[in-house]
Amino acid sequence: MYQQHRLVGLERILYAVVASICLAVIVGVNLEFTNWPIRSVPVVSALAAVAYLSTFVALYRRKASGSEPSKSAVQFNTGSNSETQSDDGGVQLGSIIVAVAIMVALVSVTFVAAQPQRGETYSEFGLLTENNGTLQADGYPEEMALGESSDLYFTVTNREQQHTNYVVVVQLTRTAPTGDATERTRLDTYSETISPGNTWQKRHTVTPVLEGERLRLTYLLYRDGIPDQPTVDNAYRETHIWIDVT
C-alpha cells in the first residue's frame, strides 16, 4: 500500500497561487466570448461566483468525507528527514503544476489574441449627391417641384464585425415648428445584407408627394427588420435634409 501524501504548507500556498492564476485566465477568456465587457465589475463578479461555488463544493466534500480540517494548513514542515523528503516531493510536484499552469495561460492568451478583436461595433450611415461623377456630402437639393424626381445616394458601412441585414426607410415628413411630425409618407424601402467591413452604396430616385416648405426628407436605418411604424425615435441611425416642395 502506498502512503497517502498530505499537503504541506508550501504546497498549499503554491496550489492556491496557481489556482488563482488559472481561474483568472479562464474567467477572462470566457468573458471575451460573452456580451459582458471585460471591466472590473463583470470580472470581479465572475471571480466571486467561482470562489463561492468552489467554497461550497469544498465544504460539501469535506462534510461528505467526514474529515477534519488539517492542522498544518499554513505551517511549513521542519521535522525529520522523511518529512523533508515528503516536502521536497511536494515542491517538485508543485513546480510541475506551475509549469503546466503557465502553459495553459500562454495558450489561452494566444488563442484570444488570434481571435478578431471585438472592440466597438457600429454602422456608418450617410447621404451623398453626385457631382461630375464624384460622390460628395454636399449640393443637396433644397427646392423641388411636386412630382419632380432627383437622384441621391445613401451609404451604409458595416462595422458590426458580423454579417448584418440592413433596412433603409425613406420618408418625407411634414413637421410642426416644435419639430414634431404632423404628416409622414414613406417613399421607398431598401434592404441589403452586408458582410463586415463592406459598404452598401445605393443610388435611388426621390419623388416628393407632399407639398410645403421645410419638409424633412428622412432616411432611417434599421438592423434585422423594421417596426410597424418607422420613426426617427426607433431607428438605429438617421440622416435627413430639408427641402421645399412647390
From TrEMBL:
Every DUF1616 domain range: 3-244
Keyword terms, alphabetized: Membrane, Transmembrane, Transmembrane helix
Keyword Transmembrane: yes
TM helices/strands, residue ranges: 12-31, 43-60, 93-114
A Pfam entry, by short name: DUF1616
Protein name according to UniProt: DUF1616 domain-containing protein
Organism: Haloarcula japonica (strain ATCC 49778 / DSM 6131 / JCM 7785 / NBRC 101032 / NCIMB 13157 / TR-1)
Organism lineage string: Archaea, Methanobacteriati, Methanobacteriota, Stenosarchaea group, Halobacteria
